[in-house]
Design a protein that fits this description.
It is built from 24 helices and 20 strands. By secondary structure, it is an alpha/beta fold. Among the domains are: 260 residues, Rossmann fold, CATH 3.40.50; 82 residues, Carboxypeptidase-like, regulatory domain (Immunoglobulin-like); 105 residues, Alpha Horseshoe (Serine Threonine Protein Phosphatase 5, Tetratricopeptide repeat).
């Protein structure tokens, strides 16, 4: 990952200061303040007060080497961090008690299950128990094996599953009760380990409990390094599912049914159907909320209006207006022509009056639900060759129709027009535009220059040529052409807008801010002008002023994403990475812009210490592009900064997967190196919490 991957820095320099100020360790018995779920999230999603017990034993005190497990401790650690994460289970860290390794004794299991949970849980609560370790069978009873189990005296040193069922079903008061068990590992080869009997007992627990077990009768569960570097396959998909991967509906919520389906499908696939997790569909609420992650909310922007409106003004009476080659009526200087019901996107506007050279054609973007005003100016008495005009009109119809074949036809007609009238600057401009649409850069460049050579004052030609150069990455060339355009026509808003993009791409943010501000002043409805104004302000240290511009861009561009592909984003092909997006990916560019704007908001809100707002903005950015390493990195840093300020251990758990995503994207990047240091610090603090 380099600065070329995104034109802006991944995060403002202040955001890297945390590398020198790692989170301070928190002792397990320290009372953490502000360690409750976000009340806004709880109310929105319907998350009740929650408690959990997490148990994991890899190395047993009294079992031989062949009976030991490798990854049950790591499984439990991962479940713990996933449960306390505000992008996972949403459990307060103080309400999740871990019994991992030597702490998972029979006495401690009894205390937590029979005393602590019954004493704190209420009828409207959510209670979850997770167990990773051995299950034994003795005298016809099934048991969960604590750390100090004695294989020669199982009935006295293990925890009976029927007692677990009674405690969970009767003593623990909660409307949502969840049991996740990974108790039949392939490493469990002791005679007392009977997968069929253990699974039968697990699956026959109280029907009001949502019980998800690692495997079914006669099966064992697998663990290995191929799953997250070392996990049981069942637990790996449980915690991935709780982090949002199981959210099939795209609402950010992971329900009991969604988790069961996700785990079952993936574990079966990973083990070639040798292991089949099971969940009993008893009387539990299948809609119970197990986790919530806003970064997994699918983008469903409101449709709003499907159409825009063109308002045509004129300096003369009796001017016939053509939109995309079709006559729309006559406009007079005292009565603008209103054209509602125009589809969003780029439209060719032309004004014609007998005896005069026509106005345009000129391209105009129409946005859904907005008015777009075009001022038609007729000034020059007609002098064009009739044959040239007829050829141009045919070419314009083909060009407007779009598509490779039509562009090629347009090339032939525009060439005929230019041949019939060598001074026909419009024919040269549209010949260059048609070649550009065919990706013939050399000829496009030739005819754009020809149009300007014929008429040095042809502002539309300079603006369109500048846009093409900008699209190619020739920023200096674009700046030269666009500067001339705005000097000759200071009210040419699109030229100001393109110039702001070009300046921003070269790092001249003060100039970019000025030009984007002019574009916004001239056309307040140009959403992308607000975006580049915000970006330029942020990069020049004006975050406070950038925030309302980001929000205005998001408001103006919050329309049906299906319409976005019709809008003229051709100059934004280099927005994220040199050439990453091209004209064919217009809808993706809309998604990228929404991602970028929310990322920018996150960065500015973080600098203002508005951590909650920053978190929401970065999470929204990831909802538009879940693979964006910059938003992952920024969100991880914000979680750490809020942790340093508030002391909520769940924030550390939330930061972990975001830093890991940065490493997975490019392990050799500078951000990945910082992410590794953060992960080491986070791991140390969370380890203390579990002791």
């Amino acid at each position: 990952m380099t600065t070329q991957t995104r034109w802006v820095a991944a995060i403002a320099c202040a955001g890297l200061a945390l590398a020198q100020t790692p989170p301070k360790p928190q002792e397990r018995d320290l009372k953490l303040h502000k360690d409750e779920p976000d009340p806004e999230v709880a109310a929105k999603v319907g998350i009740p007060r929650s408690y959990a017990l997490v148990i994991g034993i890899s190395q047993y005190k009294n079992l031989p080497e062949k009976g030991q497990l490798k990854f049950a401790d790591r499984d439990a650690n991962e479940i713990f961090t996933t449960l306390i994460s505000p992008e996972g289970g949403q459990f307060p860290a103080n309400n999740v008690h871990p019994l991992i390794g030597p702490r998972a004794t029979l006495a401690n299991l009894r205390h937590e299950l029979e005393e602590w949970l019954p004493s704190v849980s209420k009828a409207d609560d959510r209670v979850l128990i997770y167990f990773a370790g051995h299950g034994f069978v003795s005298g016809g009873r099934a048991y969960l094996a604590p750390y100090d189990v004695d294989p020669g005296n199982i009935s006295q040193t293990a925890y009976p599953m029927d007692v677990l069922s009674e405690v969970f079903g009767a003593k623990i008061k909660a409307k949502w009760r969840v049991l996740l068990t990974d108790a039949c590992h392939s490493g469990a080869i002791l005679p007392a380990t009977d997968p069929q009997a253990i699974n039968q007992r697990l699956q026959s627990l109280n029907p009001s409990v949502f019980s998800l077990t690692a495997s079914r009768d006669r099966e064992q569960s697998f663990e290995g390094t191929k799953w997250g570097g070392g996990h049981g396959v069942f637990t790996y998909y449980v915690y991935q599912g709780l982090r949002g991967e199981a959210d099939a509906s795209g609402d950010g919520i992971v329900t009991a049914d969604e988790l069961a389906d996700y785990v079952h499908t993936n574990v079966r696939r990973e083990t070639n159907q040798l292991q089949n997790p099971t969940s009993e569909r008893g009387s539990f609420d299948p809609r119970m909320v197990l986790a919530y992650n806003p970064t997994h909310v699918k983008v469903h922007p409101p449709e709003g209006s499907k159409f825009g409106r063109l308002v045509i003004e004129s300096n003369m009476d009796g001017v016939e207006v053509f939109v995309d080659g079709q006559s729309q009526g006559v406009v007079n200087k005292s009565a603008p022509l209103s054209l509602p019901g125009i589809e969003p996107g780029v439209h060719s506007i032309r004004g014609v009056k007998m005896g005069y050279e026509p106005y345009g054609p000129t391209d105009q973007n129409v946005y859904p639900g907005q008015d777009t005003t075009v001022s038609v100016r007729i000034t020059v008495v007609r002098r064009k060759n009739q044959a040239a005009v007829e050829a141009f009109d045919k070419g314009l119809a083909d060009y407007t129709a779009g598509g490779k074949q039509n562009y090629q036809k347009a090339v032939d007609q525009f060439a005929k027009a230019l041949q019939a009238d060598s001074g026909y600057s419009q024919a040269a401009l549209y010949l260059g535009s048609a070649y550009n649409a065919l990706f013939d850069e050399q000829k496009a460049d030739q005819y754009f220059r020809k149009a300007i050579e014929i008429d040095p004052d042809y502002v539309e030609a300079r603006a369109r040529y500048g846009g093409m150069l900008l699209d190619r990455g020739d920023f200096e060339g674009a700046i030269r052409q666009l500067n001339v355009a705005v000097q000759k026509e200071p009210t040419h808003s699109f030229a100001h807008y393109l110039l702001s993009v070009a300046y921003a791409r070269t790092g001249a943010f003060d100039q970019a801010t000025r030009e984007a501000g002019d574009a916004v002043r001239l056309t307040p409805a140009n959403a992308e002008a607000h975006f580049w104004l915000a970006e330029s302000m942020r990069m020049s240290g004006q975050c406070k002023s950038a925030i309302p511009e980001y929000r205005e861009y998001l408001r103006l561009s919050d329309f049906d994403s299906k319409l976005a592909g019709k809008l003229n984003y051709y100059v934004l092909g280099y927005l994220i990475g040199m050439g990453k997006k091209k004209r064919a990916a217009q809808h993706d560019i809309w998604m990228d812009l929404r991602n970028e704007a929310n990322f920018g908001l996150c960065d500015c809100e973080r600098l203002a210490k508005s951590f909650d707002e920053a978190i929401k903005s970065c999470q929204t950015a990831l909802s538009y592009d879940a693979q964006d390493p910059f938003s992952h990195y920024a969100l991880g840093v914000v979680f750490l900064e809020k942790y340093n300020a508030a002391g909520n251990a769940g924030l550390l758990a939330a930061a972990q997967p975001h830093f890991q995503a940065v490493i997975d994207f490019n392990q050799d990047s500078d951000e990945a190196a910082k992410a590794r240091k953060y992960l080491l610090n986070i791991g140390a603090v969370l380890q203390k919490l579990q002791q």
